[in-house]
Design brief:
Blueprint: E1 14-19, E2 41-50, E3 55-67, E4 70-77, E5 79-81, E6 90-102, E7 107-116, E8 127-137, E9 143-151, E10 161-171, E11 176-183, E12 192-198, E13 204-210, E14 218-225
Parallel strand pairs: 1-12
Antiparallel strand pairs: 1-13, 2-3, 2-14, 3-4, 3-5, 4-6, 6-7, 7-8, 8-9, 9-10, 10-11, 11-12, 13-14
């Protein structure tokens, strides 16, 4: 699975600080309305730690714009330091496409797909995450995302999961954005994540997030816009 099955209790993480570059490709967990331009490359390393379980996870990823409002990438999920269970390294090719973008009315439609290929200690042969979403941006740059997803079995739960994915982003200055996102459903991604996005430079991105109670964790992100 993407995360440990211990996170099925529907926690509400709070993003205490998340720092992102200009080419932010998710809000916190939900894919954003951003798509890399042709030839642009973005790479990121996410490090998570759960103080209740002494589990640490690592997810490197790289994305590139290939033109026609399409970006492709690959994540390396499942890299964990957990002495109580096997590591399930999972290369995950990703694709995001924005087939409709009305710049005048600020509406956009996106679809995406991630394919999971467990490379060790497999509990399934392959898995899939498909989504479709609509974004709307208002005059004060508030952007809302409304969408639906489908995860095949054993990716985020023991069974197939489908539901809604939502996000809201509100700039509060040139470098700060208030944001929140939400995957509905009872699974390892089924939580609300409110927080703050802070732009440090046009190249470097890093950040932390956690929660005050429940299934809380710490996340450190380091990203780099290569060009």
């Amino acid at each position: 699975m993407i995360h440990s099955s211990r996170l099925l209790a529907l926690p509400i993480p709070i993003a205490l600080l998340c720092v992102a570059a200009a080419s932010q490709e998710t809000v916190f967990n939900v894919p954003s309305g951003d798509v890399l331009d042709r030839g642009k490359v973005y790479t990121e390393l996410d490090v998570t730690a759960n103080p209740n379980t002494d589990i640490a996870g690592f997810t490197p990823r790289i994305m590139a714009g290939i033109g026609h409002a399409i970006e492709v990438g690959i994540n390396l999920n499942g890299l964990e330091l957990d002495t109580r269970g096997p590591v399930q390294t999972t290369p995950t090719p990703t694709l995001k496409w924005r087939p409709y973008n009305d710049a005048e009315r600020d509406w956009a439609f996106l679809v995406g797909d991630d394919v999971f290929f467990p490379a060790q200690n497999r509990t399934y042969d392959a898995g899939n995450y498909f989504y479709a979403e609509v974004t709307k941006t208002w005059r004060k740059k508030t952007r809302a995302t409304f969408g639906a997803y489908d995860f095949t079995h054993r990716v985020v739960s023991t069974g197939q999961r489908a539901g809604g994915q939502f996000a809201i982003e509100q700039p509060a200055g040139a470098r700060i954005t208030l944001a929140a996102d939400w995957f509905t459903g009872n699974h390892s991604l089924g939580f609300v994540t409110p927080g703050v996005i802070v732009k440090i430079t046009s190249k470097v991105t890093f950040g932390n997030r956690g929660v005050l109670s429940g299934n809380h964790q710490f996340l450190f992100e380091l990203g780099w816009n290569i060009n």
